Amino acid sequence: MQRLFLSSPHMSGKEQEYIAEVFESNYIAPLGTFVDKFEESIKDYTGTSNALALSSATAGLHLALRVLGIGKDDIVLASTFTFIGSVSSILYQGATPVFIDSDESWNLSPLLLKKAIQELPQKPKALILTHLYGQMAKIDEIVAICKENNIYLIEDSAESLGASYKGQQSGTFGDLGVYSFNGNKILTTSGGGMLISDNKEWIEKAKFLSSQAKEPFLHYEHKEYGYNYRMSNVLASIGVAQMEVLEERVTRKREIFELYKREFSSIAEISFMPQIEESRGNRWLSTLLFDKTDPLEVVEALEGVDAESRPLWKPMHLQPLFGDAFSFVDGSAEEMYKKGLCLPSPTSASNEELMRVIKVIKKLCQ
Ligand SMILES: *Cc1c(COP(=O)(O)O)cnc(C)c1O
Prior knowledge:
Layout: H1 15-25, H2 33-46, E1 50-54, H3 57-67, E2 75-79, H4 88-92, E3 96-100, H5 110-119, E4 126-130, H6 139-148, E5 152-156, E6 164-165, E7 168-169, E8 176-180, E9 193-197, H7 200-210, H8 233-243, H9 246-263, E10 270-272, E11 279-280, E12 286-290, H10 295-303, E13 310-311, E14 326-328, H11 332-339, E15 340-343, H12 351-365
Helix pairs in contact: 1-8, 2-8, 3-7, 9-12
Pyridoxal-5'-phosphate (PLP) binds at residues 56-58, 82-83, 85-86, 130, 156, 158-159, 180, 182, 193.
Protein backbone atom coordinates (compact mmCIF):
# COMPACT_ATOMS: atom_id res chain seq x y z
CA MET A 1 0.00 0.00 0.00
CA GLN A 2 1.43 3.35 -1.06
CA ARG A 3 1.08 6.34 1.25
CA LEU A 4 -1.50 8.84 0.03
CA PHE A 5 -0.14 12.37 0.36
CA LEU A 6 -2.15 15.59 0.34
CA SER A 7 -0.62 16.57 -2.99
CA SER A 8 2.50 14.88 -4.28
CA PRO A 9 4.63 15.74 -7.31
CA HIS A 10 3.14 14.27 -10.49
CA MET A 11 5.58 14.23 -13.37
CA SER A 12 4.32 14.11 -16.96
CA GLY A 13 7.15 11.98 -18.31
CA LYS A 14 8.63 14.76 -20.43
CA GLU A 15 10.64 16.30 -17.60
CA GLN A 16 13.70 14.07 -17.93
CA GLU A 17 13.85 14.63 -21.67
CA TYR A 18 13.99 18.39 -21.13
CA ILE A 19 16.48 18.05 -18.29
CA ALA A 20 18.66 16.03 -20.67
CA GLU A 21 18.52 18.90 -23.16
CA VAL A 22 19.68 21.26 -20.44
CA PHE A 23 22.60 18.97 -19.62
CA GLU A 24 23.56 18.61 -23.30
CA SER A 25 23.68 22.38 -23.68
CA ASN A 26 25.56 22.69 -20.34
CA TYR A 27 23.31 25.62 -19.41
CA ILE A 28 22.79 24.04 -16.00
CA ALA A 29 23.09 27.45 -14.40
CA PRO A 30 22.29 30.14 -13.96
CA LEU A 31 19.81 30.94 -16.74
CA GLY A 32 19.10 29.55 -20.19
CA THR A 33 16.47 28.95 -22.82
CA PHE A 34 14.18 26.91 -20.57
CA VAL A 35 13.75 29.82 -18.17
CA ASP A 36 12.51 31.89 -21.11
CA LYS A 37 10.29 29.03 -22.32
CA PHE A 38 8.81 28.56 -18.85
CA GLU A 39 8.02 32.27 -18.59
CA GLU A 40 6.49 32.17 -22.09
CA SER A 41 4.29 29.22 -21.20
CA ILE A 42 2.93 31.06 -18.15
CA LYS A 43 2.27 34.13 -20.28
CA ASP A 44 0.46 32.05 -22.90
CA TYR A 45 -1.62 30.17 -20.39
CA THR A 46 -2.64 33.06 -18.17
CA GLY A 47 -2.76 35.84 -20.74
CA THR A 48 -0.43 38.06 -18.74
CA SER A 49 2.19 40.06 -20.62
CA ASN A 50 5.19 39.73 -18.27
CA ALA A 51 6.44 36.83 -16.17
CA LEU A 52 9.54 36.25 -14.05
CA ALA A 53 10.66 32.76 -12.96
CA LEU A 54 11.92 32.71 -9.37
CA SER A 55 13.13 30.38 -6.65
CA SER A 56 9.77 30.49 -4.84
CA ALA A 57 6.42 32.23 -4.57
CA THR A 58 7.57 33.69 -1.25
CA ALA A 59 10.40 35.39 -3.17
CA GLY A 60 7.83 36.61 -5.71
CA LEU A 61 5.71 38.24 -3.01
CA HIS A 62 8.81 39.83 -1.50
CA LEU A 63 9.79 41.30 -4.87
CA ALA A 64 6.20 42.49 -5.40
CA LEU A 65 6.40 44.52 -2.19
CA ARG A 66 9.85 45.83 -3.11
CA VAL A 67 8.81 47.08 -6.56
CA LEU A 68 5.74 48.75 -5.06
CA GLY A 69 8.04 50.57 -2.67
CA ILE A 70 6.45 49.14 0.45
CA GLY A 71 8.52 49.60 3.56
CA LYS A 72 8.54 50.20 7.25
CA ASP A 73 5.90 52.91 7.52
CA ASP A 74 3.35 51.05 5.43
CA ILE A 75 0.35 48.90 6.22
CA VAL A 76 -0.25 45.81 4.10
CA LEU A 77 -3.64 44.11 4.32
CA ALA A 78 -3.77 40.35 3.90
CA SER A 79 -6.10 37.36 4.09
CA THR A 80 -5.86 35.86 7.56
CA PHE A 81 -6.94 32.45 6.27
CA THR A 82 -3.76 31.55 4.42
CA PHE A 83 -0.32 29.97 4.61
CA ILE A 84 2.61 31.83 6.19
CA GLY A 85 4.46 32.17 2.85
CA SER A 86 1.71 34.55 1.82
CA VAL A 87 2.57 37.16 4.43
CA SER A 88 6.15 36.68 5.68
CA SER A 89 7.38 39.12 3.03
CA ILE A 90 5.45 41.90 4.83
CA LEU A 91 7.78 41.30 7.76
CA TYR A 92 10.85 41.12 5.49
CA GLN A 93 10.00 44.68 4.45
CA GLY A 94 9.40 45.82 8.01
CA ALA A 95 5.85 46.81 7.08
CA THR A 96 2.79 46.25 9.28
CA PRO A 97 0.40 43.42 8.40
CA VAL A 98 -3.31 43.81 9.08
CA PHE A 99 -5.36 40.64 8.68
CA ILE A 100 -8.83 40.36 7.21
CA ASP A 101 -11.21 37.50 7.90
CA SER A 102 -13.06 35.27 5.44
CA ASP A 103 -16.74 35.13 4.60
CA GLU A 104 -18.93 32.22 3.46
CA SER A 105 -16.68 31.83 0.40
CA TRP A 106 -13.87 30.85 2.84
CA ASN A 107 -11.86 33.58 1.10
CA LEU A 108 -11.36 37.21 2.10
CA SER A 109 -14.53 39.09 3.02
CA PRO A 110 -15.06 42.23 0.90
CA LEU A 111 -17.21 43.64 3.72
CA LEU A 112 -14.45 43.34 6.28
CA LEU A 113 -11.99 44.70 3.74
CA LYS A 114 -14.08 47.85 3.43
CA LYS A 115 -14.41 48.09 7.18
CA ALA A 116 -10.64 47.83 7.61
CA ILE A 117 -10.00 50.57 5.07
CA GLN A 118 -12.54 52.84 6.75
CA GLU A 119 -11.39 52.26 10.30
CA LEU A 120 -7.62 52.08 10.07
CA PRO A 121 -5.94 55.33 11.09
CA GLN A 122 -3.68 55.15 8.04
CA LYS A 123 -4.41 54.20 4.44
CA PRO A 124 -3.08 50.70 3.63
CA LYS A 125 -0.75 50.59 0.66
CA ALA A 126 -1.46 47.08 -0.61
CA LEU A 127 -3.54 43.95 -0.18
CA ILE A 128 -2.14 40.44 -0.51
CA LEU A 129 -5.12 38.31 -1.44
CA THR A 130 -5.00 34.51 -1.26
CA HIS A 131 -7.22 32.34 -3.45
CA LEU A 132 -7.42 29.62 -0.86
CA TYR A 133 -6.97 25.96 -1.79
CA GLY A 134 -7.35 26.94 -5.46
CA GLN A 135 -10.79 28.57 -5.29
CA MET A 136 -11.25 32.14 -6.45
CA ALA A 137 -11.92 34.88 -3.89
CA LYS A 138 -14.68 37.40 -4.72
CA ILE A 139 -12.27 39.02 -7.10
CA ASP A 140 -14.62 41.46 -8.87
CA GLU A 141 -15.66 43.12 -5.63
CA ILE A 142 -12.16 43.10 -4.21
CA VAL A 143 -10.62 44.64 -7.33
CA ALA A 144 -13.26 47.38 -7.22
CA ILE A 145 -12.59 48.19 -3.55
CA CYS A 146 -8.83 48.33 -4.13
CA LYS A 147 -9.20 50.59 -7.18
CA GLU A 148 -11.59 52.92 -5.39
CA ASN A 149 -9.16 53.32 -2.51
CA ASN A 150 -5.89 53.33 -4.46
CA ILE A 151 -4.62 50.19 -2.83
CA TYR A 152 -2.32 47.89 -4.79
CA LEU A 153 -3.67 44.38 -5.20
CA ILE A 154 -1.22 41.47 -5.12
CA GLU A 155 -2.81 38.10 -5.84
CA ASP A 156 -1.28 35.20 -3.99
CA SER A 157 -2.16 32.52 -6.53
CA ALA A 158 0.37 30.06 -5.11
CA GLU A 159 -2.44 27.54 -4.70
CA SER A 160 -4.64 28.59 -7.60
CA LEU A 161 -2.69 28.25 -10.84
CA GLY A 162 -5.27 27.22 -13.44
CA ALA A 163 -8.27 28.59 -11.53
CA SER A 164 -10.37 31.21 -13.28
CA TYR A 165 -13.23 33.65 -12.87
CA LYS A 166 -15.43 34.42 -15.89
CA GLY A 167 -12.73 32.78 -17.97
CA GLN A 168 -9.93 35.02 -16.67
CA GLN A 169 -7.03 33.34 -14.91
CA SER A 170 -6.29 33.70 -11.22
CA GLY A 171 -3.30 35.98 -10.70
CA THR A 172 -4.14 38.32 -13.58
CA PHE A 173 -6.74 40.53 -11.87
CA GLY A 174 -4.44 42.42 -9.52
CA ASP A 175 -1.44 44.68 -10.07
CA LEU A 176 0.87 41.72 -9.56
CA GLY A 177 0.31 37.98 -9.14
CA VAL A 178 2.36 35.09 -7.86
CA TYR A 179 2.33 31.33 -8.57
CA SER A 180 4.18 28.62 -6.67
CA PHE A 181 5.87 25.48 -7.99
CA ASN A 182 6.72 24.11 -4.57
CA GLY A 183 6.64 20.33 -4.19
CA ASN A 184 3.06 20.17 -2.94
CA LYS A 185 1.39 22.49 -5.45
CA ILE A 186 -0.69 21.52 -8.49
CA LEU A 187 2.47 21.68 -10.61
CA THR A 188 5.99 21.52 -9.26
CA THR A 189 9.56 22.23 -10.31
CA SER A 190 10.65 20.76 -6.94
CA GLY A 191 10.67 24.37 -5.78
CA GLY A 192 10.00 27.59 -7.61
CA GLY A 193 7.73 30.52 -8.23
CA MET A 194 6.59 33.00 -10.85
CA LEU A 195 5.83 36.69 -10.56
CA ILE A 196 3.50 38.15 -13.18
CA SER A 197 2.17 41.58 -14.08
CA ASP A 198 0.92 43.56 -17.04
CA ASN A 199 3.26 46.31 -15.86
CA LYS A 200 6.53 45.72 -17.70
CA GLU A 201 8.54 48.16 -15.57
CA TRP A 202 7.70 46.34 -12.36
CA ILE A 203 8.72 42.97 -13.76
CA GLU A 204 11.96 44.43 -15.11
CA LYS A 205 12.69 45.98 -11.74
CA ALA A 206 11.88 42.67 -10.03
CA LYS A 207 14.22 40.89 -12.45
CA PHE A 208 17.01 43.31 -11.59
CA LEU A 209 16.43 42.85 -7.83
CA SER A 210 16.15 39.06 -8.18
CA SER A 211 19.70 38.77 -9.48
CA GLN A 212 21.66 40.87 -6.96
CA ALA A 213 20.74 44.31 -8.33
CA LYS A 214 23.80 44.49 -10.56
CA GLU A 215 24.11 47.79 -12.39
CA PRO A 216 25.08 47.31 -16.05
CA PHE A 217 28.85 47.51 -15.61
CA LEU A 218 31.43 44.80 -16.11
CA HIS A 219 32.76 45.36 -12.60
CA TYR A 220 29.38 44.92 -10.84
CA GLU A 221 28.32 48.25 -9.47
CA HIS A 222 25.60 48.47 -6.80
CA LYS A 223 23.30 51.35 -5.93
CA GLU A 224 20.80 49.25 -4.01
CA TYR A 225 20.62 45.75 -2.64
CA GLY A 226 18.89 42.84 -4.29
CA TYR A 227 18.47 39.11 -3.75
CA ASN A 228 19.47 35.82 -5.27
CA TYR A 229 15.95 34.76 -6.23
CA ARG A 230 16.16 33.55 -9.85
CA MET A 231 15.15 30.07 -10.94
CA SER A 232 17.76 27.75 -12.47
CA ASN A 233 17.48 26.51 -16.04
CA VAL A 234 17.31 22.89 -14.79
CA LEU A 235 14.22 23.56 -12.70
CA ALA A 236 12.65 25.67 -15.44
CA SER A 237 12.91 22.70 -17.80
CA ILE A 238 10.79 20.70 -15.33
CA GLY A 239 8.35 23.61 -15.28
CA VAL A 240 7.99 23.62 -19.07
CA ALA A 241 7.05 19.93 -19.02
CA GLN A 242 4.65 20.49 -16.12
CA MET A 243 2.87 23.37 -17.87
CA GLU A 244 2.07 21.01 -20.76
CA VAL A 245 -0.20 18.99 -18.43
CA LEU A 246 -1.72 21.80 -16.34
CA GLU A 247 -5.19 21.40 -17.87
CA GLU A 248 -5.10 17.65 -17.22
CA ARG A 249 -4.07 18.26 -13.62
CA VAL A 250 -6.88 20.75 -13.02
CA THR A 251 -9.39 18.32 -14.52
CA ARG A 252 -8.16 15.48 -12.31
CA LYS A 253 -8.12 17.66 -9.15
CA ARG A 254 -11.72 18.59 -9.87
CA GLU A 255 -12.65 14.93 -10.43
CA ILE A 256 -11.13 14.03 -7.05
CA PHE A 257 -13.21 16.75 -5.42
CA GLU A 258 -16.38 15.49 -7.15
CA LEU A 259 -15.63 11.96 -6.00
CA TYR A 260 -15.39 13.03 -2.36
CA LYS A 261 -18.48 15.20 -2.71
CA ARG A 262 -20.53 12.38 -4.23
CA GLU A 263 -19.37 9.80 -1.72
CA PHE A 264 -20.06 12.04 1.30
CA SER A 265 -23.34 13.45 0.03
CA SER A 266 -25.34 11.41 2.52
CA ILE A 267 -23.30 12.57 5.53
CA ALA A 268 -25.19 15.58 6.87
CA GLU A 269 -22.38 16.96 9.01
CA ILE A 270 -19.94 17.31 6.08
CA SER A 271 -19.77 20.43 3.92
CA PHE A 272 -17.19 21.36 1.30
CA MET A 273 -15.38 24.53 0.37
CA PRO A 274 -17.68 26.38 -2.04
CA GLN A 275 -16.75 27.91 -5.36
CA ILE A 276 -18.06 31.37 -6.25
CA GLU A 277 -20.45 31.70 -9.18
CA GLU A 278 -18.92 31.88 -12.64
CA SER A 279 -15.59 30.63 -11.33
CA ARG A 280 -13.67 27.42 -11.89
CA GLY A 281 -11.46 26.50 -8.95
CA ASN A 282 -8.52 24.17 -9.48
CA ARG A 283 -9.47 22.19 -6.33
CA TRP A 284 -5.79 21.97 -5.43
CA LEU A 285 -6.77 20.37 -2.15
CA SER A 286 -10.21 18.94 -1.44
CA THR A 287 -11.22 20.55 1.84
CA LEU A 288 -14.24 20.04 4.05
CA LEU A 289 -15.82 20.92 7.38
CA PHE A 290 -17.17 18.51 10.00
CA ASP A 291 -20.04 19.78 12.09
CA LYS A 292 -19.69 17.19 14.87
CA THR A 293 -16.69 14.95 14.36
CA ASP A 294 -13.32 16.18 15.64
CA PRO A 295 -11.07 16.58 12.57
CA LEU A 296 -8.06 15.42 14.59
CA GLU A 297 -9.84 12.11 15.12
CA VAL A 298 -10.18 11.86 11.34
CA VAL A 299 -6.46 12.64 10.89
CA GLU A 300 -5.60 9.78 13.23
CA ALA A 301 -7.99 7.34 11.56
CA LEU A 302 -6.58 8.24 8.13
CA GLU A 303 -3.03 7.66 9.38
CA GLY A 304 -4.25 4.10 10.08
CA VAL A 305 -4.65 3.57 6.32
CA ASP A 306 -1.45 5.48 5.54
CA ALA A 307 -3.23 8.58 4.22
CA GLU A 308 -2.05 12.12 4.99
CA SER A 309 -4.52 14.80 6.05
CA ARG A 310 -4.12 18.16 7.76
CA PRO A 311 -6.25 20.76 9.51
CA LEU A 312 -7.07 23.86 7.48
CA TRP A 313 -4.43 26.61 7.73
CA LYS A 314 -4.35 28.17 11.17
CA PRO A 315 -5.35 31.80 10.60
CA MET A 316 -2.50 34.30 10.71
CA HIS A 317 -4.13 36.46 13.39
CA LEU A 318 -4.03 33.44 15.72
CA GLN A 319 -0.34 32.74 15.11
CA PRO A 320 2.00 33.56 18.03
CA LEU A 321 4.21 35.37 15.48
CA PHE A 322 1.46 37.93 14.88
CA GLY A 323 0.19 38.09 18.45
CA ASP A 324 -0.18 41.85 18.56
CA ALA A 325 -1.09 42.52 14.93
CA PHE A 326 -4.27 44.39 14.06
CA SER A 327 -6.98 42.31 12.49
CA PHE A 328 -10.55 42.67 11.26
CA VAL A 329 -12.08 39.33 12.12
CA ASP A 330 -15.47 37.90 13.01
CA GLY A 331 -14.46 34.35 13.92
CA SER A 332 -15.11 32.82 10.48
CA ALA A 333 -11.61 31.56 9.70
CA GLU A 334 -11.10 30.46 13.30
CA GLU A 335 -14.24 28.33 13.20
CA MET A 336 -13.29 26.76 9.88
CA TYR A 337 -9.80 26.07 11.17
CA LYS A 338 -11.29 24.18 14.11
CA LYS A 339 -13.76 22.17 12.04
CA GLY A 340 -11.92 21.67 8.79
CA LEU A 341 -9.61 19.24 7.09
CA CYS A 342 -7.58 18.94 3.89
CA LEU A 343 -7.94 15.52 2.30
CA PRO A 344 -5.45 13.64 0.14
CA SER A 345 -5.80 15.08 -3.37
CA PRO A 346 -2.88 13.69 -5.42
CA THR A 347 -3.62 13.71 -9.14
CA SER A 348 -1.55 10.54 -9.55
CA ALA A 349 -3.89 8.51 -7.31
CA SER A 350 -6.70 6.40 -8.73
CA ASN A 351 -10.28 6.55 -7.46
CA GLU A 352 -9.69 3.08 -6.04
CA GLU A 353 -6.84 4.34 -3.88
CA LEU A 354 -8.91 7.31 -2.71
CA MET A 355 -11.63 4.89 -1.59
CA ARG A 356 -9.33 4.13 1.35
CA VAL A 357 -9.91 7.67 2.59
CA ILE A 358 -13.61 7.60 1.81
CA LYS A 359 -14.25 4.34 3.69
CA VAL A 360 -12.55 5.60 6.85
CA ILE A 361 -14.49 8.87 6.90
CA LYS A 362 -17.80 7.15 6.15
CA LYS A 363 -17.21 4.73 9.02
CA LEU A 364 -16.40 7.56 11.44
CA CYS A 365 -19.26 9.86 10.50
CA GLN A 366 -22.17 7.59 9.62
C1 LIG B 1 2.75 27.51 -0.89
C2 LIG B 1 2.23 28.85 -0.64
C3 LIG B 1 3.07 29.96 -0.63
C4 LIG B 1 4.55 29.87 -0.75
O1 LIG B 1 4.99 29.30 -1.92
P1 LIG B 1 6.55 28.90 -2.07
O2 LIG B 1 6.74 28.71 -3.52
O3 LIG B 1 6.71 27.62 -1.30
O4 LIG B 1 7.35 30.00 -1.50
C5 LIG B 1 2.51 31.21 -0.46
N1 LIG B 1 1.20 31.36 -0.29
C6 LIG B 1 0.34 30.32 -0.26
C7 LIG B 1 -1.11 30.58 -0.09
C8 LIG B 1 0.84 29.03 -0.41
O5 LIG B 1 0.02 27.98 -0.35
